Amino acid sequence: MKTLSLFFGIAALASTSAFSAQKLYKPFPSDVMPSLSESGSFNVGVKTLRVSYPDGAKNVVGELGERELTLEVWYPSEKGDATAVYINETRSGQEFEIQGDAYRDAPVAKNDSRYPVIVVSHGYTGYRTLMYYLGEHLASHGYVVAAIDHTDSTNKDVDFAVNPFSGFPSTLLNRSRDQVFTLKSIEAHAFFKDSVDAEKAGIIGYSMGGYGAVSTVGGCYAFNENQAATFTGTQEPATIPSVKKALNTCAGGNTTPEATLPAWKAALALAPWGGQHQLFDVASLNNISVPILYVAGDNDDISGYEGIKWLFDNTGSKDSKLLTVKNARHNVAPHPAPKEAYNSEFDLGSYIEPAWEVQKLNAINEHFALALMNCHVKAMSDACELLNVEGSSAQEPIDGKKPEPWKGFDDRWALGLEMQGK
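and the corresponding structure tokens:
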């Protein structure tokens, strides 16, 4: 993580409010965190965008309606006048604020080359800044990072206590579509279009965002009729075949994986959902050429570790990898819990891990996300070396001799991880 505190935020509205904006990170010394979790050389700007599907979007039963997304976009910037405060809410509706370090609406930093684009996609439910630390971090290293509020799938949209699955049909249908549309929106937006290279792009997805990301880079959904009915709540038998057809798409709502945008160069799938139900066509997974780094807790009780491993085993890209976080469940991606979440397990349960410090998990994600994107999006060969660790990070002695630590980690500070390649 950062040697200086780095704080970010949520649902950007204004830099002042009646609430007390909180800081979530401790100033750990750099020696105890992986090397690529250090901030980059760029100042970071942040801007909130609202974008609409130009022709509307259909729901699972084929009804056409408007669909608007709110995006939080971090980018390399000039120094601005004020840092942003962000407002969001927990699953139970507890509102909170986080103080950001990014400059609100600052000019994009001038550079000799254009900036690649990374799309970030939260789980069900969540919000666009659930992984703000990745948005900030990657922007400081020269990326434009667009994180999505997936409409119908946020804490604000879904009353998780009363009707927890109200947004699930939309989530299943729109995750990959939203990811592809977001990339195109950033490429076309007046503020960014002269600064980005949207032909060099990466995707980061957590949980249902990972479900979408696997499809976005070429995986095709393969719901059977029972699954289509169960996961969407469809009860009318005559409607089930059309719902199944609506769901079973590839690469952002297309009919074949050949429609995968060539811009996608890498994907980070954090605890992706869907493998435990084998909701992907195996042949399409086998034909994925985009490198995917899967990150999974070996005790994930939401997406299921074996399900994530099934996705990895069937992903065809030879550069794909599986990073296992030992003794972790599903919360390998969110930022640390705000103080308001400590009022109940209901809220706290979507942030913390029983056996891990969340800040350490965030730093590990920063390190490997940057290594992945630098290696495959920016084609920086030295970054690839940081991905090519293997086996256990524990440095368990062999014939009485302790192995060297993983590249990018200090001695003794990579405990609890395993990396598997193809």
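(Above: one complete record from the training split.) The CA atoms of residues 221 and 269 lie 16 Å apart.
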